[in-house]
Write a structure and sequence with these properties.
The structure is a homotetramer. The first copy, chain A, is α+β, with helices and mostly antiparallel strands. In chain A, about 35% of the residues lie in helices and about 15% in strands. Chain A has a seven-stranded mixed β-sheet, sandwiched between helices. In chain A, helix 1 packs parallel to helix 6 (about 175-200) and helix 2 (about 80-85) packs across helix 5 (about 145-155). Chain A is globular and about 55 Å long. Chains in contact: A-B, A-D, B-C, C-D. At the A-D interface, helix 3 and helix 6 of A face helix 6, helix 7 and helix 8 of D.
């Protein structure tokens, strides 16, 4: 995968997350540099729906740009830096405020766990990070590496951490995985909220089911790709999609 | 009805189900071959919103293609094959994950039953199939004929089976019927969820009402056709609609 | 107001109700003939979003066309005929299935009453009509004048009657009024549902507040017209709007 | 900031609030005259989505136009006049009926308070004004300065007052702030409603967190501007955006 494709895919990911209401003016997605694990790519400070290739910048694991950069950067880029630092297995990170996950960080009676098969990738355990536990009264933003590292510690080896009163951070083994996980996370949250309202016992996915789904996952499988292609088309950037070792295919673009 | 029309209608059905949020990147719709009840048509592995005529393939009741086929197929095509095998009366099948039916498979305190007249076609009884009952920990996908036949057994002679933590399968006497049923299923689910939240006694449709509505149904009645035409227009394919023995009519196309 | 304007306004009303999710493939709106109170105008059997001038037909108070008509008519046109027959004050009628009013007909613990100022026009009392009370097991459709007259009796001198498991019928002193009432009816229903979920005492609008709002209402006031113009623009037919004795004004058309 | 820019920004604010479902046919936004604190700008009586430069009028703190004006004005312009009169710190005002805040004015068991970081700007206390407390049975509209002053008294030095059965009034130190506050107010309301339904203890933002966020706020910061630019693009008026002392930048316009 060359860098051009990496940057292009990151642009697509920005647009998909905007179109699917995972991000709005705020929220961001990044991808680790494929050849240099100490660097990652992320947009400059801009609403994801407006991101183009020229808006992508390269940062180090301290959250600072690796080249001269005069443009403003996301205040919370330390979320990404700290997760890449702590988790060598992670290739892509999303931070967002998707509305329907918020209640699970605010009212902690019902833990957010997978109840639908497309939600399995959030993992069996979704910890809730409260910035106040360590840092007291703040503006809730992850403004430095100390904040970021505390969040990464809470995330542990999970896929998603909720951030109390704020949003979530998710970590994936590929860009496609983290986008898919972030799209289905609010859907799983809605299904669980509504099931809770219906009452009676909740049937969560079992540990074995989560493991079985995880084992069957591959970022370039037909099934995974089907969603990526679909979402890119919906977001109006189907024409940007390229698939390694497959013929370029897009419709309605 | 010639095969060209069958394939065209299946393309329209794909687009309608996408536009009405019954399917997204996942989910599929099929129609039995009108002249060969041992075959059925379904798209190759592709998001329904992107399906065109060339994407339709012909499968046998074992879920395998009847001609050489190099393109990837839906993993869960066995849902369709097994229902056609078990139910000679069924001419069309939908499998989807429409969000608002999910809670009824997860929290089984409140059975999903018709509460609105447009929901009557889901039938008086909607069984819930749990793949784990017979197959233990799986990835929840209907990956083979064994899975499919177990689902078809649970469906019995009903119109819809919920699939725990996954979605639903619906079976109709015509493509138009199964599409309509699948569009109104989540609406009926929402009405029931919200009525439950208001509290007090729920007035379900009576058995007699469900039977009366069923008796009055015809896939090419003016009323049925009105919805098909409307949904096709909304989905941007009003120009593809053809009505047997009626003048072709479409607007805003 | 000449007939051309009446028909044009009825086309606009159809499109507005479709755009505002009050009707979908089903549901209809009618207006009494301004010069002949025993006739009314309504579309032939067609989804409201697709209605054009040539689709408008003229019916008598028996629900039958007053001219030769070969095109199919709405099965439930008797809702309109019976309300016009019973209520000389009513100039326009809507029948629809707007989703968020349905729970109040299904679970009758919480009566639907105005809780927001824009909901005041539904009136202090919204009766619930159950077709089964008099006619037993039916397909729930208002298929003849007997059904229609029973519904009209239940409506009495109110503005809206809910129809159990089906939808609502609303009656207004003008087309603009009945459209506005029908648009704000589901919004009032949602506000009441959610307030109920928050718990505690519900502050309904008082009788005096409902009367005060009613007294201040005029179908061609600046405030009423503002909504009509706005909705027509949203529905893509701002260019069809004409206002008696005012300069024609539309934007973004 | 010259007057041309002020008027242009007010047009953008109207379109953003419409696109973000804060206003519909009703609701309005105003800005104080930058050079004459006894005047303010607001649209003539028109749905916000249709407002253009020529629709902006200049009113005094009595709610009356400062120049000859034959066009109809908003009935409730006294909300704005009275708040500007009472609060010299306020530079911009919104009045709207955003649906998801309504339940908190109707069922007063759960006070509306910040639970998400983007909701912090509504302030720690959101009073509920009931016009009936002082004026008895009215049509609920703020029709004169007496009504407006009573509302302004209830608002006190807070940012938002709910209006029972009606909507809200919000006051900001800049146009961008009041728009942002008004967009995130319903989102905070939804998060709180759903958290309440999940049950258990609600973690509100602390006073210290609200203060910390407030301290960090600046109307022309990169982060604030990012949302303004994004919303303007979504609302189709990205090309109208101008940023003082920055290069003009817009995309997808």
């Amino acid at each position: 995968m060359n860098l051009d494709t990496v940057v292009q895919d990151l642009v697509i990911a920005n647009r998909i997350l905007a179109r699917e209401d995972v991000v709005d003016a705020y929220g961001h997605v990044s991808i680790r540099h494929p050849d240099n694990p100490k660097h990652f790519f992320i947009a400059r400070s801009l609403a994801p729906d407006l991101v183009e290739r020229g808006d992508i910048v390269e940062l180090g694991l301290d959250g600072q740009p690796v080249r001269d950069e005069t443009r403003a950067l996301y205040l919370e880029r330390f979320i990404h830096a700290a997760i890449y630092e702590a988790r060598p297995d992670v290739q892509a990170v999303v931070h967002a405020h998707a509305e329907d996950i918020l209640p699970f960080g605010i009212a902690q009676a019902t833990p957010l766990r997978p109840v639908i098969h497309s939600g399995s990738f959030i993992g069996a355990h979704v910890p809730v990070w409260d910035i106040a536990d360590k840092f007291g009264d703040t503006d809730l933003l992850v403004r430095n590496m100390d904040h970021g590292r505390d969040l990464a510690r809470c995330l542990g080896d999970n896929r998603v951490a909720l951030m109390r009163g704020h949003g979530f951070a998710s970590a994936g083994r590929s860009l496609i995985e983290v986008v898919r996980l972030s799209v289905y996370l609010p859907r799983n949250a809605r299904a669980l909220m509504r099931a809770t309202q219906l009452g009676g016992e909740i049937k969560y996915l079992s540990e074995g089911e989560i493991a079985a789904r995880n084992a069957g996952y591959s970022p370039y499988s037909t099934e995974t790709w089907r969603a990526w292609e679909y979402w890119a088309n919906k977001a109006g950037c189907g024409h940007l999609v390229t698939r390694p070792d497959h013929k370029h295919e897009h419709k309605k673009g």
